[in-house]
User: Fold this.
Amino acid sequence: MKHFLFFFLLCTLYPVQIFAQGETAVPFLLITSSPEGNGMGGIAASILSANPTASIANPGQIGYGSLQNYFSANFYTPKVDWLPGFHFGDLWYNVHAVNYGINFNKIAPSSVPISIGFGYSKIFISLGNFIVTGPDSPEPIDTFYAFEQSEQYTMGVGFDYFIKGGIGLTQKNILSSLGGWISGDSAVQSEGRQTAIDIGGIVQVPLAELFISQEEKETKKLLPTLNMTIGAVRSNIGGKISYIDQAQADQLHHLATLGASWEIGVTMLHNSVRKNILSFTLSRQAEDILVRRYQDEYEIYRMKYQTGFGDIQPYNNLIAGKYGGGIYLRKGWQINIADAVFLRGGSVNARGLRYNTTGFGFSLQRIFQFLSPALSSTPAESSSYDFFTQHFDVQYNYASYEASDRYDFSPIAGTLFQSVNFIIK
Assistant:
């Protein structure tokens, strides 16, 4: 039973490539939770997003989200079948997230352009039911259900004064229940618990606005867009997880994330409001698990944490797009059509792990705004219609994982992420 469980967990954790960098606990936290980000190679920490699940990757996203929305709630529809290549029916992954925001500039337009946001999210991965046998017989004596989960509580501040973005902090309450021990004629399930902290920030610099006057913004019908976004996160800062014996506790995988995105597009002036018409975003994000093994003076292997951003090289990884060392390198792109329809693609490259991603999404609010003249025939209808299309939105996002080569077998190929996001602005 013990060997079968180890093999099962090895298969489960394979996609997050943990073994090349150190033996650490709860690697399910390395799975990208954002369906938007999963369509772009798993990039969710370094492209601005008001989706609540983006705050799981970068707490700073909740600051930006609070600039945009008073409330947003995201749910997977349905939960994700994890490692579909192995056809384990009881192995699945699920996330839900809720954010609340207060933009002081909306309440009092003359106030400072800042906002605050609060969020809650829960990640749950089911590892299935396992049969427990005794030491002297293959006859089952009990069963146990293995799972892991993390609850996140996030707080952040958003700002929009030429540059916009956010900074934030997340506390994670982690529970890992993977097995136990035999006591008499039954199995006693053991649990490991730990608290961890994430710290992150994201900023977007509107480079094109450096060369555009205020008069041009207010009068010119079409203007170019050129934005650069940078995101940085340190995740899972905390102690060890112990299941039975504290002396055999497992390290948490401290994670460093650094990414950059470049957006180019065109905006149009309509009813004194400047709106996006078409844009293209190119993103790159590097991640490093900051745990390293070393031998002490007695030739005993031990663990230590790296400082800063580990082996991430900003120019080589984010500008040149080169992969090297023990990092993850994520690449992604997005085509944004009038903030209504989004097309996405990307890739992931890590030691022993390569796959591609595709995705799309749409916003009902933007679509109905385009249809407004046709759907509201009287002034009263138009006023009510405009109120709802200005303050409410429903968004859908879809993403899938694919093998990088059609002849390769990948246990995560065919993984599908689908979610619905409800928004009040």
Q: What stands out?
A: Residues 168 and 397 are 24 Å apart (CA to CA).
